[in-house]
Design brief:
Length: about 230
């Protein structure tokens, strides 16, 4: 709707912010205001207020239409994935863990496959590539070991996102205004690692390791997660 600096300059910033807010309902009004401010500032800095070639506008419109079509296809695929996932018992089991939503649960299931492929939780951890690497030679033994990052990168990313969601303070109790984490047990484990002096990423990886071990136990026992209250 506002493809050029001239179009942005022709309207006030509030108009642009309101339109962005309408087109991006999942975002906050504050975010829309920030984007409108950036667009207005960029428009003011542009020495070429008018577009020299109309073909540039046509190309931009074409790319926007292609992007919107891709979004429609992705939305359809997501609906199909959700429908298929609901028929799988493991999907409900994994989603019972606080902090794991529909997309993350579906990703974890698709990457792990049959849990019987792994006869020990450490093998599943190694498959996700979040096990520590061993660096030693002769009498030398490294003291700072990074994760191996072998196996499934998608599973590793899904676990990372699940941990970030689980340890976040964002849910209130119904009876009080107290803020509590989505997953109390995982947050306590995270806080413990931080108190031990572990950096943020190291603590998150440790939580991902713990989370994957929980997933392994739940799938093996065909049971759901019971969070501490």
């Amino acid at each position: 709707e506002f493809p050029t600096s001239e179009d942005i300059s022709a309207v006030d910033e509030e108009t642009v912010a309101n339109r962005i807010n309408e087109l991006c309902p999942s975002r906050s009004k504050k975010w829309a205001n920030t984007q409108a401010e950036k667009l207005t500032a960029a428009s003011a800095r542009n020495p070429f207020q008018r577009t020299l070639y109309q073909s540039h506008i046509l190309s931009l419109e074409m790319y926007i239409k292609m992007l919107l079509e891709y979004q429609k296809h992705l939305s359809k695929f997501e609906d199909e994935i959700n429908a298929l996932a609901k028929e799988i018992e493991e999907y409900k089991i994994i989603q019972s863990i606080p902090g794991i939503g529909k997309k993350i649960a579906a990703t974890i299931i698709s990457e792990i496959g049959e849990i019987d492929r792994f006869n020990h939780p450490k093998k599943l951890v190694a498959f996700a590539g979040i096990d520590p690497s061993i660096f030693e030679s002769g009498k030398f033994k490294g003291t700072v070991n990074r994760i191996t990052k072998r196996g499934s990168g998608r599973l590793r990313h899904a676990l990372y996102m699940a941990v970030r969601c689980a340890i976040r303070d964002c849910r209130k109790k119904k009876t009080t205004d107290e803020i509590i984490p989505r997953n109390k047990r995982l947050r306590e484990f995270y806080d413990k690692k931080r108190e031990e002096g572990k950096p943020f990423k190291v603590a998150v990886i440790a939580c991902a390791n713990k989370l994957l071990q929980w997933i392994y136990a739940l799938l093996q026992n065909n049971s759901t997660f019971q969070d501490l209250t």
